[in-house]
Amino acid sequence: MVNPLSFLEPLRKKFSRNPDSNNQFDTTFIRQENLFPSITKNFVFLVLVLLIVSVSFGFLNYSLGQKNNTKPKESEFKTTTQDIKEINEGLTKNKQSQQINVSSNPFGISPTPTSTPTPTPTPTPTSTPTPSPTSIPKPTSAPTPTTDPSGAECSNMLIATEKGNFSIDVISMDISQVKMITDTANSDNCGNDCPTKTLASYVGSNGGFAGINGTYFCPPDYSECASKKNSFDFPVYNSRLDKWINGANITWNDRSIIYQDDNGMHFNRDAKQEWYLTHVGEPIRCIGNSCVIQSWPPKVNLKTAIVNSPGLLENGNMIADQFPLTDKQKGKGTKGGMGFKGNTIFLVIGRNVGMVDFAYVFKALGATYALNLDGGGSSALWYGRYIVGPGRSLPNAVVFTKK
């Protein structure tokens, strides 16, 4: 580096001790005419050097000043730090995401990103999506229908009808694959203290797999039945004994019948107007209240028959309201019945249904003909086990076995 005072070297030499004069000033070399011009020349040179040095220091101070200008004064810095601390505490307390806008310069600080700390905004938590509730399916059948090897099915379902939706238990069978049996606990007509059996006993004694309660009867828990306990006045053909029980009552009005012979399943809304086999095997014809044995039509092989009231469907049309119904029959309750269409037969227990409702239940199932049976506390339905019941002990029942 060049010595900035090198210009003084001539003067130093002029005023220095003369090495040849034993450290004494040699004034012989100093002459007036030569000294002043030299001093003037060197003075000018010194001024220039000082000017250059001043400019250099000024430039250096300017550069340092620029850097210092980016920093706040000590008082400002303290104020800013305290304010930012309060802001951060507020952010923590409120748990909110906020961002300080430095460009607004609320504290008089130069908006330089390096000088003003910017709080990191708290990320907004991702909301957990709420799962949509699983819609509940409309009940159709529960449990899943079980299928017997003979093709029979048993279901519990909520069935839609013209009168509303009703809960039912239903057994459907192909009559060509099963044998229908109508059975009674008594082997002869009985007016009081008649024998009864459970539905399970009827099914078991006939080797069956399905069954339903039979006709109305007079239960012992009814006060009006004190003198005719467990009796029934509806005719039932005892398939096991091949005879009618209460056959003479076939002439009573407002009763319908379902029966089976060699030609299949049959229904008649007016039981007394139909041809039947008597207990001795003779065909009879009833007109009004008069019944006579006739040789025509030809004798048929009656297999099973049961009479009750009212009829529910005839040719697919609802006929229940065409019978004199009691208040109990009209009212909502548990009702049992059977119906058929072609070779398909239905055994049904309906809940909270009126008699007209019950007729529409069979219509919704696709039945063409249907007959009401007993219900209420006597309701019982068997399909390998009690589906409904056991209910009361019964004087008669309908059973199905495999062929």
Q: Which parts are unreliable, with pLDDT below 50 for 5 consecutive residues or more? A: 15-36, 70-80, 94-123, 125-147, 276-281, 293-299
Global Rg = 59 Å
Strand order of the largest sheet: 1-2-3-17-16-18-14-15
Which structural class is indicated by helix and strand composition? Answer: alpha+beta
Tally the beta strands. 21
Secondary-structure element order, N to C: HHHEEEEHEEEEEEEEEEEHEEHEEEE
Total count of domains? 2
Output the number of helix runs: 6
Tell me roughly what share of residues is in helical segments: 10-25%
Distance between the termini: 128 Å
Strand content: 25-35%
Oligomer: single chain
Rough outline: rod-shaped
Whole-number mean pLDDT: 75
Largest sheet: 8 strands, antiparallel
Description:
With 403 residues, the chain is α+β, with helices and mostly antiparallel strands. The chain has 2 domains: 6-69; 150-402, no CATH class. It has helices at residues 9-15, 32-69, 74-94, 199-205, 327-330, 355-365, and strands spanning 146-147, 153-161, 164-174, 178-184, 210-213, 236-238, 243-245, 256-261, 264-268, 276-277, 283-287, 290-293, 304-308, 311-314, 317-318, 333-341, 344-353, 369-372, 381-383, 386-388, 396-402. The strands form 4 sheets. An 8-stranded antiparallel β-sheet has the order 1-2-3-17-16-18-14-15. Strands 4-21-5-19-20 form a 5-stranded antiparallel β-sheet, covered by helices on one side. β19 (381-383) and β20 (386-388) form a beta hairpin. It is rod-shaped, with a radius of gyration of 59 Å. Mean pLDDT is 75; it is low at 15-36, 70-80, 94-123, 125-147, 276-281 and 293-299.
